[in-house]
Amino acid sequence: MAGAVVITRPLAQAAPLAARVAALGRTVEVLPLLDIAPLADQRPLQATLARLADYALVAFVSPNAIDAAFAHIKQWPPEVTLAVVGEGSRTALAAHGVTPDRYRIVCPADNVPSDSEHLLQALDLAALKGRPVLIIRGESGRELMGDGLRAAGALVDVAPAYRRSVPPLTAELGATLRRLLAQQNDWIITSSEALRGLCGILAELDLQHPDAMQHNSVVAMQQQHLIVPHARIAETANNLGFSKLTLTGSGDERLLAALQSCL
């Protein structure tokens, strides 16, 4: 009997995938491993977004960046190109009324990974030389996109729009993790940061056990099957001691196909 499918995306992005997994007849557990919160001070973000029309291109690093920014955007300037890394971000834009038939949206091709590297390849970097570009992202994150745009001569501004954090270990979360680790499940992991955070939570959980030397939740987690969409996450998993990995490539369709092959 197949175990549960554990979806570890932030809560706002988990529901659509959870519904599609349930439609396959699988038991679904939604276990967000990253909490997404607004910035304490929204004023710098609001001031930047008030000048959207000044930019030749605005790049969003994630659906969370889109949702956080569009909380302050009434109307997208039609002359400003948008850039996103994947399917989830295109869906998030569409939810805010920004669709390819009305606006110019650049993203990696469907047959390549959804990441900053391939978004840079999809952009006309020569046309951005000397022009202002805005990157909207979390408080922390990879610098690759900004570095790549600067190397091409673009004038890059970066606007933090939200805060990511690993959830605290509560009694409820600890009980959920112990229950999930008591059987074999398929874990959908879509963030290296989330996987590192999970291992940290499990290590903390073990320290609370009366016989910590005999109780190792991290080892139990390493025996679980991970389904990951990107080679960078697979590399993180390998470095953390995971060996049961399925690398699917980008997009929910590939994640779902991998789950069907597990049945």
Automatic annotation (TrEMBL):
CDD domains: HemD. It holds the Pfam family HEM4. GO terms for molecular function: uroporphyrinogen-III synthase activity. Pathway: Porphyrin-containing compound metabolism; protoporphyrin-IX biosynthesis; coproporphyrinogen-III from 5-aminolevulinate: step 3/4. Keywords: Lyase, Porphyrin biosynthesis. Signal peptide: none annotated. GO terms for biological process: protoporphyrinogen IX biosynthetic process; uroporphyrinogen III biosynthetic process. InterPro entries: 4pyrrol_syn_uPrphyn_synt_sf, 4pyrrol_synth_uPrphyn_synth, UROS/Hem4. It comes from the Bacteria. Residues 17-237 form the Tetrapyrrole biosynthesis uroporphyrinogen III synthase domain. It catalyses: hydroxymethylbilane = uroporphyrinogen III + H2O. Its EC number is 4.2.1.75. Belongs to the uroporphyrinogen-III synthase family. Catalyzes cyclization of the linear tetrapyrrole, hydroxymethylbilane, to the macrocyclic uroporphyrinogen III. This is Uroporphyrinogen-III synthase. It comes from Duganella margarita.
